[in-house]
Amino acid sequence: MNKVVITGGHITPALGVIEEINKDKGDWQIYYLGRKYALESNKAESFEYRTLSKQPKINFISITTGRIQRKFTPNTIKSFIKIPLGFFQALWLLIKIRPRMIISFGGYLSAPVVISGWLLGIPTITHEQTRTVGLATKINKFFVKKIAVSFPEVIDQLPKDKTILTGNPVESAVFEYQPSKNDNHFGPIITSEKPLIVVTGGKTGSQILNQTLYKIKDKLTRDYFIFHQIGLDPNLDEVVEPNYIAVRFKENHQFGWLYRQSDLVIGRSGANICTYLAALKRKAILIPIPWAAENEQEKNADWLESIGLGKKIEQNKLSPNILYEEIKLMMKSEKVVSMPKWWNQADPREAGKKVWQIAKESQ
Q: What is the pTM of this model?
């Protein structure tokens, strides 16, 4: 049986490629080298572990490595010491698995796997999902055969002979999933006649967004139905109330359905949510994470504004009143979308196929 190792911290595009691997007639066995816990200081299970460890066709293996931190924290030294541990663990696992190829999806976990694969002569490609080149890709570019990217502006920052525009892979279920009316969380949305607002702070949640939204929740639910993904926020609980549902997590395909039904999305501006919003042409209010590397989320929000889908609110200007007024304006505004010419080359519906084809050709 053919074996492929997938690694990295960007699980959403990885899922899009895994779907294509499972369709392939080459009978591939997938090994995912990832993290079991979402945060170094928190024992909550990571999204990739919860999603992939239950799939029978995927062998999820948790690896321990550290990251180069931009700020000194109590975990900095401990994390730095873990870096060589991660390298030797990755090297041992690759010798044991003996895959035909490695596909990396960025993040600090990927570097020891990619470098170990290069030392062992295993063909590797990597995917950069963001509008800026992450630290892992800056390292991995020296050790991989090809680099797939989601946005054309990063091509000039990478070796041109290796770099290919593919787009950001998305699972087909994001565009196709349809829940039952009997679903506790989605049934009330299906039967509701109120406009739907989806609020999400990402897989781990955003406490500042949660707190701001909660202060205007009662006013909002008079006119709208609110679906609120609260993540790991310890101050909020999952609830089902009239015109308001709060949950900790939902899978990507379920969020795809929510976005398709939405009249407005409120959230951060990471690469994945912006890919969904652009592909589905959904209006959004975006609050970029101010400490995101290379100001990446700010750039994503600016891009959605430029094509007519987004309204950006700086986090230091976010308040209940400002958010409420922006919601009212966005709900009344007419949607006029102008997609860039390169978008057809980077269609997320086809990106998974392109990345998998590049991987096979790189063997």
A: 0.89
